[in-house]
Amino acid sequence: MDVRTNIEAIKSNIQRACKKAGRDPSEVTIMAVTKTIPVERIKEAIACGIKVIGENRVQELVKKYPLIGGDVKWHMIGHLQVNKVKYIVDKVELIHSLDSVKLAQEIDKRAKAIGKRQNVLIEINIGGEDTKYGIKPEELGDFIKQIEGFENLCVQGLMTVAPIVTAPEDVRPYFKKMKQLYDELKDMKSRIIDARYLSMGMTSDYVVAVEEGANIVRIGTGIFGPRNYDK
Ligand SMILES: *Cc1c(COP(=O)(O)O)cnc(C)c1O
Q1: Residue 111: CATH number of its domain
Q2: Quick check: CB of 209 below 6 Å from ligand 1?
C-alpha cells in the first residue's frame, strides 16, 4: 500500500471513531512517526497533507530536520536524555516525553537561553510497566508542583504509550484512565499548565484512542509500512 492510500484509510477510520464518540474529526491531528524512515518517504507523507512529524531519537531528528524544512512541525516523542536537550530545543514545537524533574529543569534552561517557552507533554506510564518510561498517574499532581517554577516550560497535556494487548478492546481501560487524568490536569490551577493535547494511540490502537478522547495520534507503521531497522 502506498503512503497516500494508507493516510486516506487512517483518516476515514478516525472519522468513523469520531462519529461514534460524538467528536469533530478536525480536532484530531495525525502525526507521522518517521523513525528509520528515509527523507523521500517522509516528503511523500507531507505531500499527502501530514503536518506533524514525530521522531524518537535526537540524532535522527537533527539529521533530518534541515533536509525536510519548516513546512511541518517537529515533535520529539522518544525518551529524551538530559544531555541531548540542547540539540533540539530550537527545533521542536512539542516534546511529548517529559518524565523527570531533571529533564524539565534542563529544557527550561535551554529554552530560556534562546528566548523560547517550550511546549511539553508529560509522559504517563499508564500501565505501570517496568519497561516503560513516564511518571505514575498518581504522581501527576506532585510532579506539576515540582516543575511549576520553570518559567520557560508550558505543559500542554499528556502522552502515553499503552501496554501491548492481544485484543484491541483490552487497551480501552488505559485510554479511559488517561482521559480522566487529562481532565484532572485541566482542572489543576497552575501557571505552567495550558492543557490542550492528549497524545495517545499508535498503529495498533489509534481507533480506540480516538474514541476515548485522543487528539494527537502517533502513527508510523500504519503510514509507512513495517520499519526496517537494518537500514
Ligand atoms: C514508534 C512509535 C510510535 C509509532 O508506532 P507504530 O506502531 O509504528 O505506529 C508511536 N509513539 C512512539 C512513542 C513510538 O516510539
Answers
A1: 3.20.20.10
A2: no
